[in-house]
Design brief:
Blueprint lengths: L16 H16 L3 H18 L1 H17 L10 H25 L17 H25 L11 H30 L5 H19 L6 H18 L2 H23 L7
């Protein structure tokens, strides 16, 4: 049932787009170009404009901003030291839990959800798409990581312990991406804007964080379509398990390529 405080038929070109765009732009500044003062300033400006333009939008943008603010307290650069992995886990978990708990227990709403099953069983087309993602990852990711040298943005792993930590870290962040960017940010934006526009806004935030994580050089040519497709698929399937499966299979190839790039002799290189 649609919330009475949210526009029943969202339109794209309204003044409400300005504060939402500023919130997305703040992520570019915070995580992409990493200018925190400007990023926080744009974040606050977006919230102030939302307060005057549309109070229901302000409430939802405040949830998104709270998550972004929490994430910005740490560096997102890949670091698999034990202490940093614990810090990552605590901070990124808080970025998901704080908006969820505020909406559930302060706003008394149940919009942010994590629908694990969604549409089940998966259709033949969904299974074919999973296969296509794996093939595309195998074809594109070695060219990207090794060709651009972006694999160097991840720690060089040689010992079994480090390899396990890299595997856990890559997969944990992949799951978190879907919980925050898709289930939280995208879902909240869809209350106020057409799906395509909400998807563009969430993808801007998604890709900005991936840039700081290490998907640099021409990485956005991969991460932008990936973020957009993940949003679209979640909207169609309402299935967290499906988008997580797609993401983790993609990240499995990411993991193998990073390990291979750092240890070419293991793979006959």
């Amino acid at each position: 049932m649609l919330d009475s405080n949210v526009t029943a038929t969202p339109t794209a070109l309204t003044w409400r787009l300005l504060p939402a765009a500023l919130i997305s732009a703040s992520a570019v500044l915070l995580f992409g170009v990493q200018v925190p003062v400007a990023g926080y300033g744009v974040l606050v400006l977006g919230l102030l404009l939302a307060w005057f333009i549309d109070r229901p939008l302000f409430r939802d943008l405040l949830l998104i901003a709270s998550g972004l603010g929490i994430i910005s307290t740490i560096s997102l650069e890949a670091n698999i030291d034990y202490a940093n992995m614990v810090l990552f886990g605590v901070v990124l978990s808080a970025a998901v839990l704080v908006p969820f708990l505020i909406q559930r227990y302060v706003y008394r709403e149940r919009v942010i959800r994590f629908p694990w099953r969604g549409t089940w069983p998966w259709t033949r087309a969904q299974w074919w798409y999973i296969a296509a993602v794996v093939v595309a990852a195998i074809v594109l990711l070695p060219a990207y990581f090794i060709g651009s040298g972006s694999y160097q943005n991840w720690p060089a792993v040689h010992e079994p312990d480090a390899i396990v930590r890299l595997f856990v870290g890559v997969n944990a962040v992949g799951i978190w991406d879907e919980l925050f960017f898709i289930c939280t940010v995208f879902t909240l934006l869809c209350r106020h804007f057409p799906v395509w526009l909400a998807n563009l806004l969430q993808a801007t935030i998604f890709v900005s964080s991936l840039w700081e994580l290490g998907y640099q050089s021409w990485g956005p040519l991969l991460t932008i379509p990936f973020a957009l497709v993940q949003g679209a698929i979640f909207r169609m399937t309402r299935s967290l398990s499906y988008v997580v499966t797609v993401h983790l299979l993609f990240d499995l190839v990411v993991f193998v390529v990073i390990v291979a790039a750092h240890n070419p002799d293991w793979f006959g290189g």
